[in-house]
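Why do we bother with holo predictions? Because pocket geometry can differ from the apo form. Keep that in mind while you read this record for zinc ion.
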Amino acid sequence: MNGKEVVERALSLGEAVHGSEKEKAILKLIEESLDREVKRVPVRTKVWEVKEFHVRVNGREVEASLLPYTQGYAEGVAGKDVVLLDMPSHPFEVKPLYEGLMNREGVKAALIYDSGKLRRIAVSVGKPSAFVRERVREGDKVDVEADAYLKDAESYNLEVTVQEGESYIVLGAHVDHWLSGYHDNLFSVEILLDLLDQLKRPNLKRGLKVVFFSSEEGPRCCTGSFQHPKEDTHVMISLDALFPSRVVFSATPDLWRYSELFSLKRVEMTTPFSDHFAFVTEGHPGVVLYNDDLIPYYHSDADLPNETDEAFKREMTASLLRFVKALESVSRVELDESFFRFAESRGVKLKERRGALVPYGLVTKFRGER
Ligand SMILES: [Zn+2]
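The structure, written out:
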């Protein structure tokens, strides 16, 4: 099986929740497709299980998707104790919106409408709420029944050593995904599988690993990568939510100059939302390549392949090969010096990289930065 076939099979499995059997089925498909030795790195995680889920409007069942990690039973009237919402402009606004509502007295549930799409956007544990396929009218009688819970689970990351070395360029992508999850994140998996195919005899001056991560989604970001060994990392590159035909280069500042190797939407200070950040926290240079042009489809059942993917995939594979080549000849000392210089330009004098960047809401800043 080539990368495309692996991903087609993975896509046909449907939603692969963090820590689930489907997540492991995807990892197994990847493992079986590789003509190489791989290592399974065990991960303690949680799986979200939906035992029972129904939304009924005036007694008729409607198509809906439960918001992780809400649960319970609610019965009420739309527009009164069951709040009707339209999808906000950014998926990250769903959580604060939900939490604000649930603090309001008399609110029993919320239903979100997003032009017929179903989505999963993680909020906190609380009253049962969902995306609905069709518009619910004010005054409709609604009941929501959700028997769902988080349960301890075991899974693993799949690590492929492409070339041994004293330190490693690590390329990674998570395999778990909400709903159809093509661009977030099976497309990235396909790019890495193609890359592995092109790196049969890499002859690099540095070590190179490819890691397929478990449980990037979840009640907490990046459970799989946080448990992955990282001491011998040179630079970590995460592919996550790529979408034709450009990338957001979200990186520690020492890597910004390499953004020119990609069709670029913008460069930004690293965000804390992907597997690279587990490495950044440990003091390593890290970047996530993503594209927020995906927002209309993000975590929805409309995140499916499109006709421009194939060309973009070839372009990304070529850019990543150039990136790896460029990183192989830069020393870690050079990268660290560039990182410290940048911190100083922000008024922060650092002694070490570990723990130097901390998340503040949706962005990261240097510890102590004003
Ligand atoms: Zn993702």
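The mean pLDDT is 97.
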